[in-house]
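pinging the channel bc i need a second pair of eyes. not urgent but kinda urgent?? the chain im working w is below, pasted from the shared doc
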Amino acid sequence: KPWSTECDDSSWVAVSVPHNCYDLGKEMDRFVGTVWYRRKIDIPQNLIGKRTVIHFWGAFYRTDVFVNGKPAGSHEGGYTPFAFDITENIRPGSNIIAIKVNNILEPLDIAMADWWNYGGLHREVFIEFTNKAHIASFHITSELNDSLSEADVKFDVTTENAEGKKLAVFTYRVEDEKLHHFDTVTTTIGGETTIVNLKLKNPSLWSPENPNLYFAKVIIYDGETAVDGVGDTFGIMRFEVRGEAVYLNGQKIFLRGINRHDEMPHGEFPDAGRAMSEEERINDFRLIKELGANAMRTAHYPNHPYNYYITDRLGILTIEEGGPVRASLDDDRLIDKYKQQMREMVMRDRNRPSIVMWSIGNEFGGDKFLKCIRELSSLMRSIDTRALTFTETGHQTVLEGYQYVDVVARNEYYGWYEGTANLQVMSSKDLHMAITTALPPLIEQYHAENPGKPIIIMETGAEAVAGEHASSDERLKRGTEEYQNGVLATQFEVLRKYPYIVGVFPWIFADFKTQRASGTCQFKPHLNQKGLVSYYRQKKLSYFTIQKIYAEIATQQNIQK
């Protein structure tokens, strides 16, 4: 009985949370099943009676929590936060928290595609103590006028047990890593929801070039005593889909994109996991920024929340994905699970200015599952105002599904899976001809099927083993850096000709671990090497080519402004 207070855990393995299963030994890397965690926590008498909540930022996949031998709550889903009120479960002195995590996926579970099943507590866990009067949520939105010279900022504060108390909102500019206070608004709490409005003249707008941020702090006062408070950064900007183009702060933009899996190597392959340091995360995003990318898609699940604070600070427009990936969506029970994941994702990340679009899924069958598309898009429209998309494979017919979202997104791999898949060696000239001949009709088909909507090529690319090079331009061997470089360079040559293509996102930033031993990973089992950088973050030839292309696109856009 691992949940029991009487359980002898003296022989258990000690781990730091968050942790990677590989840290427990190579044999645990492919472990699928149940793991238990136990933690003894001493709680002083002065915290008993406080509202006490245990928070989880991510546990894969099913989680059951016990406090002092009694159930405290259960959650399903691997990448979104959840929390349980354990006020009545705790006692002064020693407390035992036991957590059961199971990463077995059943047919009606949120499916994984071709990435690694990292089970367990792969994100942070913490306990929060607050007064009975507390802030339950803090949502910040802003609306710019037509000239972008004035912003109406709305602070939407949900409180509990605080009626009649004073609420104060302090607003700051973030400049040179310092906070500069410029406004305070106070009001009396009249119910669960309190709206505080702020009018900002000549706001500093957020953009990839100038990721200007503000900070807001909200505090509940009982008389002159602060009883609870929270704070968050926010940005003021306008991202719009207009006709066949996208605009940021009134300027037409091209999304110079990249995809990224939230995974980090920690030793010799296959030693990797989702737990990583802040420095490791920041380094990845600095490499993305150095690439010249102004946009990123999370592949294919809600990433660690810290990632989006980094994209806010560095100025990286983000498409956050949280819907189905290669799933069969005929059952309402499964659709409801995706709704829960999407709702939890939005509630967590809705204050992040860098998130400009939500993706409700990837390669899940298009028009075969219209009910799911309709229900997910309807849910998202009801809880947020950002643009919506979903991505389908190159040859999947989607005639109706894209009517429910704002942007058409397609994955195509001409030069890799399509057109040249059976050729192990070819000249650079033949590779160029194969792509330039076959790709234009497909792009024109996408446009004909969904006229009036912008199109993003959300995935394209080829594998390259870092350090493997072709002998000459006449003999480009699949898997060499030159072959990958030729595919991506030619893809951009074609795609940049179409005005309704508003972004391209090469697959992928870094090589990553896969469930499959072949197919998507043709040169090393369980390692997809389509990254612009290697598993160990070594830059490949294509990184520098994309860097040059993105610099050209950025220069062209600046000239057109």
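so The CA atoms of residues 48 and 91 lie 7 Å apart. and The chain is about 20% helix and 35% strand. — does that match what u expected or am i reading it wrong
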